[in-house]
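Q: I have two molecules that I believe assemble together. Could you output structure tokens for the complex as a whole instead of separate predictions?
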Amino acid sequence: MTLPIRRTRTALGAVAAIALLFAGCAPGDDGDDTEAGDAPTAGDVATDPSELGDITLTVWDQEVREGQTEQIEALNAAFEEAYPNITIERVARSTDDLRTTLRLALSGDDAPDVVQSNNGRPEMGQYVASGLLTPLDGYAEAYGWFDRFPESVRALASYSEDGANYGEGNLYGLPQMGEIVGLYYNKTKLAALGLEPPQTTEDFEAALQAAQAAGEVPIQFGNSEPWAGIHEFGFIQNQFSDAETIRNLGFGRPGSSWTSDDNVAAAQATRDWVDAGYFVDGFNGVSYDSAWQAFAQGTGVFFVGGTWLVADLTSAMGDEVGFVLPPAGASGQHLVTGGISIPWAIPANSDAKEAAAAYIDFITSSDAMTAVTEAGNLPVIEADQQTTTGLQSEVFAAWAQAGQEDLVVPYLDYATETFYDTITVAVQNLMAGQSDPQQFLETLEAEYTAATGS
Amino acid sequence: MALAAPGRRPGEPRRVAYLYILPALLVFGLFVLVPLARTAQFSLYEWNGLGASTWAGLSNYRDLFTEPQLRGAFVHALVLVVFYAVVPVLLGLLLAAAMSRAVLRGMGFFRVVLFLPQVIPMVVVAIAWRQIYEPNGPLNDLLRFVGLDSLARPWLGDYTWALPSVGIVGTWVGTGLCLVLFLAGMSRIPRELYEAARLDGAGPLREFRAITLPSLRGELAVALTLTVIAALKTFDLVYVMTSGGPGTETTVPSYQVYNNAFLLGRVGIATALAVVLTLVVFVATVLINRVGERGQR
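A: Yes, here they are, computed for all two components at once.
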């Protein structure tokens, strides 16, 4: 069954010919470099979308959890009603799916008009560096975003034009919701143990011990989608390290070290808590959704989770669930990981940027913040002007305290373009006992120093 | 009757034949050859998939051998070959031999049941098995029920057991295919051969070695080719069941291609990996078929 030699040669020739076609045309060099230089200035931004003519606005979002879908669909409908000349084409994907498809979509000529692009160097930073997102400063001035959104919020979606600096420079996205990863607790179970929500790390460890002695699962946790590990370790690190250190490490800025004593203590505590059996059995084989659902059904006294679960947990647990900031440890502060939900940005290749900006303004307006609240979520601004009850009001109080006392520290995977991969694997290894705290920290330190040059 | 061109014997290839295959060739070229060539080209650059790229020569290929995570992916693929190919073929042979000897009532039913995993979409298979392997899933419940509490574990979160757990799903899927192939092959073996062997005093084992196995050489080659390829390019099971975890215990080449290209923005590494994987699959296929053919002579 061998091919005649002649035919093999023809096939090889064809391959060679095709290869020649591409010679001299390197990947990513399409010749139509739309640099982000066409950013508008405030003066020529048309802020009345009804004058823009008939437009189809393609919007890619990841608002698929309960409460999120509800509010975004309501806002989309209201936008279309207010501006009948604009039709919204909504493409909703899970966070993971959006992350993988966005890369191709942004670099294409037929890019969406509005996208949710995760902040941090692994995603938004790379897109900015490649000139794929539109700087929003002109729109921000025209719509007054600079006044409505505080510096601390804008910084999380600001980059220098070359993407090298994070936390300053141009504004590339606007968030709709605030987001903090705090401590959910089961009120009934904690009361049965005769305990108050923990204020300090000591309280917390005592509560974990008491829960275990009472035969409860102290901390519900699922880490088979390994990003949950970033939140879990961040929650522990926040109790040991100070804000400055965590911010330097998280934003990928020089000046701190993963191997400092406070981080060693945090990594050691993580190991100790695993060894003590404070986390649910087999957490590395449990998915994130199974974990919070198990917590909602009454397995577990504590659950470390983000405010994106408020709507889901409220409808599952009602008044039985509470929320507090992480306990204060060595630093004496209730530092909390988080910041903003995934910001809304305008691709550089969008052909309806003005309508896109109008849309972003619409879904972040004061009315929208109320809609966000009513759907059970945490609006990024004007949270103090909303009326809430139950779990939501506890979350709002925690958010307000975090804002006033400057307690929010960034997600650790923001640090470098590949830090997401590094830290998720490292945390799984640490918590499974595959690596000791020293090895864990050295892995992270190596990538941090390589990226920051410190 | 078409007139044969002068000086040309009927049946001899003519240039016009290329015209007939042109449409297929165009589609093939556009969707297979061009992407393949592009992939090979990308693998020589350092590129994040977004901006400009820089020429990297063969450094991406060197990284495949020096980065432990990438090397590990190939090792895991080899382990999976055992679970996806070797075990199903052996099991398939055993089952087929047993089923063809015994006169079983409801034979068709058993064949359908064993073949069923082949028909179910892999993602559905993966989700179902993920549930089975959960810390409080049916598998652990069963183990605890029969008193084997010490064996119960979070299968997919366990550093030792995650890869075999994924592999066993592959075995479960592949066995039915092998069985059906072998049964079909065995049904073509003339009964007289077995009768003759029996008259000569051969036992069941001898019969199997002297008649069944040599007659199944073709089917064996097909079964091995299909299952080895499936093992080497596994993606869906790993993606849905473990995302390559815990740690990097279950990463496989295809998963690393995806991870590097779409999540880490290392398109050069990803495409180099894809090229090597293609070559490995190609070589494995050629080898298996060579061995299969040699025996036929």
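A: One point stands out. The two ends of chain B are 40 Å apart (CA to CA).
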